[in-house]
Design goal:
The complex is a heterodimer of chains A (221) and B (307).
Chain A: E1 8-15, H1 18-25, E2 31-36, H2 39-42, H3 48-58, E3 62-68, H4 74-81, H5 85-90, E4 93-97, H6 100-110, E5 113-116, E6 118-128, E7 131-136, H7 152-155, H8 183-193, H9 197-201
Parallel strand pairs in A: 2-3, 2-4, 4-5
Antiparallel strand pairs in A: 1-6, 6-7
Chain B: H1 8-14, E1 19-24, H2 33-42, E2 48-51, H3 63-74, E3 77-83, H4 89-101, E4 106-110, H5 131-144, E5 160-165, H6 172-185, E6 189-194, H7 198-207, E7 215-219, H8 225-234, H9 242-251, H10 257-282, E8 287-290, H11 297-305
Parallel strand pairs in B: 1-2, 1-8, 2-3, 3-4, 4-5, 5-6, 6-7, 7-8
Classes of the chains: A alpha/beta (221), B alpha/beta (307).
Chain lengths: 221, 307
């Protein structure tokens, strides 16, 4: 039996405002709702329950619904939506309760009008329900070995590689009104504990942003 | 070997003079009248003046344009503040070439207050480079005549690059390690954040004494009790001495307008003259950076009161 880990790293989503969804759906008569069985289920934004709630909210115009294990994986889309082909063909639009990657995979797969029901906010960790934290910005150049396991790209508000900045006070960050910990003070404490303060003072040259300057692809074969 | 001095600021420091610098904050305007007016008040009393670059992430008249006009129209040298918040490396590089071509010889690198504090908070913060990397780029431009990728620049780039240090930082050890990192990269001078407590300034200076980089200590004369109170409450980590605050408060009780102003000035001049004398006498600081934005009139009196 699979056990649920205490902390999971996922793509974190949040629901769009109901009025926004009504605005996007109101011209369509036949809507098919697709949820996500992985990240959005864990976020409680696009699991079985939220798909059901959305169907109830939109009423008679919903002609079908499904939760795909991972809408971002085309193989699973084909597998999980195979039985709904007729309803999908009939639908005017698909309302998607997944991250942007899942929603676009469904757009490509079905060629249908896509209505995003969620906003994708970050890649992060879920500690428990209602406590989600951004932890990775997919920068394509992971340096957390040098920074005590703490990513400055995402956890420093300015994404500095040679912090802290002058906005740090009492170990806190100016961008949060000095309520959130300064990532560079956390990095300092972590490296000090590991006996690796030399890594703190090492100058890190400018980042190669070309790795993220265009849509990224991995094509191995 | 010390680097060649291109600016009046660095020449004065190299000559062993104890220098004063001022600060000018351009406003939200498409006119130079105000910066010229303020520059004229400071001229002759300071060797150069900082020109701020969108402080608090509020968008104002550009630092470079104001710095240029101050040099051209008033004949006072500028220290052009430049943040990495609003420009990527291409824009920073190109702005620096423009600055040098316009006769700017000092740039003060800063991260820049985060856009969350902005009057346009929906703006995208850039931070393509951080300040250490910005200093690194300036060194390449000045010392090697190339950009970050090694592409050649035509002609010489005559520019000094400064950094900011914060004596109020807590934890202070992190601040020192950061400063050390930037000085190793090759900053030409350091200017400190505002400090009121002279002992704090002295202990900060002791820590950075080992580096052969001139330091200017930042002070902030207060036009009113309200200003001092605002700083005490809103600038994190800063402590404004109680006695100074109380004296300002007492001075403000005077009803007669001109007597009140003169008393407030007395309080400032007395406090900061003692501060400056102590710094000058006991530390290796090369001078004082006077941030008297909106209170420029005090600069002359203050500078003249320190022999």
């Amino acid at each position: 039996m699979q056990t649920t880990p205490e902390i999971v790293e996922l793509i974190i989503t949040k629901p769009k405002a109901p009025e926004k969804i009504l605005e996007m759906t109101n011209t369509y008569k036949k809507i098919f709702i697709v949820g996500c069985g992985t990240c959005s289920t864990a976020c409680q934004t696009g699991g079985e329950e939220q798909v059901k709630e959305m169907a109830e909210r939109l009423g008679v115009k919903v002609i079908g619904k499904a939760v795909v294990e991972s809408p971002c994986d085309l193989r699973l889309v084909k597998r999980d939506l195979g039985g709904s082909k007729q309803l999908l063909d009939e639908a005017d639009a698909l309302l998607i309760l997944s991250c942007g990657a899942g929603a676009q995979a469904l757009a490509e797969h079905t060629g249908k009008i896509i209505i995003p029901g969620l906003d994708t906010i970050f890649i992060g960790k879920i500690e428990r329900i209602g406590r989600l934290y951004e932890r990775c910005r997919a920068c394509a150049d992971c340096i957390i070995y040098e920074t005590g396991g703490i990513c400055p790209i995402v956890r420093c508000s300015k994404g500095l590689l040679n912090g802290p900045c002058g906005g740090m006070a009492n170990g806190k960050c100016e961008a949060s009104g000095h309520t959130r910990d300064c990532a560079w003070v956390l990095i300092y404490n972590a490296l000090k504990k590991q006996g690796k303060l030399d890594l703190f003072t090492t100058f890190r040259p400018p980042m190669d942003r070309s790795k993220k300057a265009q849509p990224q692809e991995v094509v191995n074969r | 070997m010390p680097r060649e001095a291109y600016s009046e600021l660095m020449k004065a420091i190299a000559a062993g003079k104890f220098v004063f610098t001022g600060e000018i904050q351009p406003k939200k305007t498409a006119h130079f009248d105000d910066v010229i007016r303020v520059a004229k008040i400071l001229k002759g009393h300071v060797v150069a003046c900082n020109v701020t670059d969108n402080p608090r992430a509020h968008a104002y008249l550009s630092s470079l344009s104001a710095a240029y006009i101050i040099q051209r129209e008033v004949g006072m040298e500028a220290i052009c503040q430049m943040t990495v918040r609003d420009r990527n490396r291409l824009a920073l590089f190109s702005e620096l070439l423009g600055a040098v071509a316009l006769g700017i010889r000092n740039v003060l690198t800063m991260s820049g207050d985060h856009t969350s504090l902005s009057d346009n908070p929906a703006a995208m913060p850039v931070y393509d480079l951080d300040t250490a990397q910005f200093v690194y780029m300036v060194r390449k431009m000045v010392d090697e005549g190339v950009d970050l990728e090694g592409n050649k620049i035509e002609g010489k780039v005559k520019l000094h690059v400064g950094i900011v240090g914060n004596p109020n930082a807590d934890p202070l050890e992190v601040e020192f390690l950061k400063i050390e990192r930037k000085l190793k990269v090759g900053a030409d001078f350091m200017q400190t954040q505002v400090v009121f407590d002279v002992e704090k300034a002295k202990s900060f200076l002791r820590e950075v004494q080992g580096y052969p980089v001139p330091v200017l200590v930042g002070i902030f004369p207060c036009k009113s009790y309200g200003v001092a109170d605002f700083i005490a409450k809103n600038v994190p980590g800063i402590s404004v001495p109680k006695e100074f605050m109380e004296e300002l408060k007492k001075a403000e009780e005077i009803e007669d307008n001109s007597r009140r102003k003169s008393r407030v000035e007395d309080v400032n001049v007395r406090y900061f003259t003692d501060f400056i004398r102590e710094v000058k006498r006991t530390t290796h600081a090369s001078g004082i950076h006077i941030m008297a934005v909106g209170y420029e009139g005090v600069v002359k009196t203050l500078v003249e009161s320190v022999p």
